[in-house]
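Standup, Tuesday
Yesterday: got the pipeline producing structure tokens again.
Today: sanity-check two examples.
Blockers: none.

Example 1:
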Amino acid sequence: MSHDLDATGPGIIDIWTWSLDAFDPDLAAMLTSEEIARASRFVQPRDGQRFIAGRAGLRRILARYLAVAPRRLGLTYNVFGKPQIAGSNRRQLHFNLSHTETTAMLAVSDHYQVGIDIETIRPLKEDIAGHFFSQKEYMTLKTLAPEEYLQAFYRLWTRKEAFLKALGVGLSLPLDAFDIRISSPQLERLDGDADAPINWSLFDVDTRSDLVGTVAALTVGNPIRLRYRMEENDLLTDLVAHQRHNAPLLHRNDDSRASPS
């Protein structure tokens, strides 16, 4: 059986990645009845399977930090839909999940509020930046060469989404209520909070070339590094093998999320 995971501490945010196509029916045993019912409501079976793979990975990882069985891990949601661990635990744990098509990524910290967003880079169907970004961000994007625009757009989109998810306030905060730098991951302005640029940190996530990702965290100026847990990247495959050996997926705060395309 997998050992418990160490604390992240004040200088580390853990980043976990797994495939949502690593599906097996046995994974549903880790989910609650409510989650299984939710999976059954997807129109396309593939989407329901990916939801199960995402939730099973989430439960598997968080349960190891807290030394509990995955299915016994209680999750609650704030009024804006951001999930959090229910009840009292021996360790405070902050987390956030994002997914795009076949890939899921989870950010975990026992010190800081976190948010993560990943997106698949694909052509845009409309002028999303003009509709949602701040005037400063929009004008900066317009100065870029056509071959630079798409990458920059998705980089900015994931930074803004990750920040909103870390705040946990949903769409109650408009996307144009804050500025994020395009050239580097940095919050420049948040309406009503002059100290926000100092207190919040943004980090570009290492991903495949067709993906873009960002982590946001309320680090209050502390130096942070991202720790990629690649040595156990395929947690779901490991789980299924273990079970068989012993047996006779606009912005929302939970793991259902809008894509810009």
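Example 2:
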Amino acid sequence: MNAPASPLHIAHQTQTSIDTDIDPEETAEWRDALASLLKAAGPARVRRILDMLAAEARGPAVGWQPARGTPYVNTIPADAQTAFPGDLAMEERLASLTRWNALAMVVRANQAYGELGGHIASYASAADLFEVGFNHFFRGGPAPASDLVFYQPHSAPGVYARAFLEGRLSEHDLAHYRQEIAARRHGARGLSSYPHPWLMPDFWQFPTGSMGLGPISSIYQARFMRYLQHRGLLDTSSRKVWGVFGDGEMDEPESMSALTLAAREKLDHLIWVVNCNLQRLDGPVRGNGRIIDELEALFAGAGWRVIKLVWGSDWDGLFARDTQGALARAFAHTVDGQFQTFAAKDGRYNREHFFGQDPALAALAQGLSDEQIDRLKRGGHDLVKIHAAYHAAVRTVDQPTVILAQTKKGYGMGEAGQGRMTTHQQKKLDRDDLIAFRNRFALPLTDEQAARLDFVRPAEESAELRYLHERRAALGGPVPVRRSYAAPVTVPSVARYAEFALAADGKEMSTTMAFVRMLTGLLKDPVLGARIVPIVADEARTFGMANLFKQVGIYSFSGQAYEPEDIGSVLSYREATDGQILEEGISEAGAISSWTAAATSHSVHGLAMLPFYIYYSMFGFQRVGDLIWAAADQRSRGFLLGATAGRTTLGGEGLQHQDGASLLQAATVPNCRAYDPCFASEFAVILDHGMRAMLERQEDVFYYVTLMNENYAQPSLTGGVEADIIRGLYRLARHTPAGHAIGRVRLMGSGTILREVLAAAECLATEWQIDAEVWSATSFSELARDAREVERWNRLHPQSSPRTSHLAQCLPGTDPVVAASDYVRAWPQLAGAFLAAPFTALGTDGFGRSDTRAELRGFFEVNRGHIVLAALTALRAQGRVDAKACADAIERYGLAPEAPAPWAV
């Protein structure tokens, strides 16, 4: 529906239906005066007068607050619409073909294989929203000309169906929807369930299947485009970021969490289309209210331009005849649950129950047949109205725009699914339903072809395909397309920025400080420096990065409009339009989204960037793990740095701040390389290797590396161990007793607990006559990765000479191995499963505590005394020492055998 000839009259009718007017004559005079002003001076003058009156009315004498929201009609009235520039009948045919092929793809897969799943109803509701975008707005081609489009995940079948019409996917491909493994055997391309760049690296750009992540990611992608523009790295001024999302998806906190950022930074190249089909998976999104009203208030309050696209062109005539505002009043009192009932019912029902509720409404419907009432479109199914909304959105200045498009879930599915509670799960249709769908959209199929679910693609020289190709050519090429064509970036030699760490000679520092010093050096590199994106949530000073404020500045789209309190300080706070640091405030979700935008720049923008996001390690994988998985899916490249890492390094902070699991979580992400170095020199080697892998060799990997806030002596790097540091294990030291050794153990340590391992090895040699090797385990996950690959190769190649993993090469035989870390036992146990030797893992299972580092390490049983006891216990099992030695160790080191286990309290 569009606004009627007198929008003031509709607003009045809606309001007076709620409030009793004590002086209707005076009210009419005010209304007439305003209508006269509108006619004489235009809307700009009306807005000025209303702004003045509103300012007066908000004062304490009146205390007025405006009602939220606008009437339940279209924002763009019919007389303000731009002319539709395309062939309307042709585009409706293309939309119908795409609808059918999407439906056929899902139903065929489920008829043949039973439980593959897929979604029909979501794309049925969104098809026209996408079709207008594909034909008129979504620009393709290489960056930086092409637009970025985030697709509603449940609509993926429709995107595949359109790519089929374009000739980018074959019928054979469509027949292997959600059969990504079997497709290879049949020479087809398997089509992933939702947008997944990892699985379809030349098709999808952004993963949106985990709902809520697409919205926040689109905002930070749009902001990163401005960042690149303001820093003079890339002209992104002509690109738009589109997001097509669901109304139910807006309930996800990530969907809403960055709305004010988009408005604050005036991201007018950001356009969201919220497909308001009013229904989520099980029922209405807001059965007892109206989600469009709710979202209008939220977005408008956050500073977005809101365009309501509620009713189609068929309603224009009804509004024109509705001189009493009956439609607006009826809509104001109809909740979404009832709208869904109207969607699921036929024209006769709607005549009786919607138009029949008011004599004025009944009169409006008198000239309509039941079929015409049934065909009255909601705004999101009207190509002309959609185009008008999109056209207005792309011309909006200084604001992001959201289009709230009302649709019907399962549109066109009739009794099989339109507007029904079960429609989201609808994956199969019977013969009569398929024929009814065929008839509804006038598809060129016989009854038998429809029942067989034949795909439909007109001849290449047909008018339909010529039109489709012409429209895409005019917009630069097909979408979605993912490209990865960024030129390699030369990485400086490690000695240029990390010589202090490689030759530390016992200088005390934390690995966090070492990282900041290395980063400072890298930022000065003439080639790489400009490509680095330092990112923090709100802890730059905590991590010792304040020196970078003046060196490279904090990015701000508006510069610095104030004089900072510490302006005279060497480390004063400096914001700048060309600032390099992204400081996101207290929003880990925002910071990781910025990191992902930078980490995917090689494919999104054709410009390789290198983001470093440093954060409290506890607030990484545990807090935003789903966003990290999404980053992995889209082949991100960059560094995640878990600072204050481990459960015993952050003394005093307690349970919520002490991280014991992030490394284990990182190990589950296939393209994440997780490292837990103890020394600055180890970190330098990992940093150099990672940069060369991502920037020079252009591998689709990213790195999670822990950093400590604990100052201790840093040794120089022993030459020749660099490759083993990357593999995850190298021999650091050996302590032998002065006399005859009564046993031999190998001790493994990672992170800060490696220092306890070194101390334990010395104790074993000097106090217990045990020969103790010390191995620095920079990455238990890399050791396990290599060992798994070797194990698999040997299992599948029984007639070939067996291979040996790096772990087995380092630790052969049966001498006991004790591994200790500042993380849960499952972290070192990743590698322990592949050893032939007896293996003991010590870790920090349980809740964190507030105390000193020494007390924490004793409590979690990872200090030197517990490591010594673990080694003696393993040797006792081999008959090398007796039980008394173990008892003596318990007494000597003050261990508490009767204390409850740390994971039990």
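Quick observation on example 2: Residues 88-113 form the longest helix (26 residues). The two ends are 62 Å apart (CA to CA).
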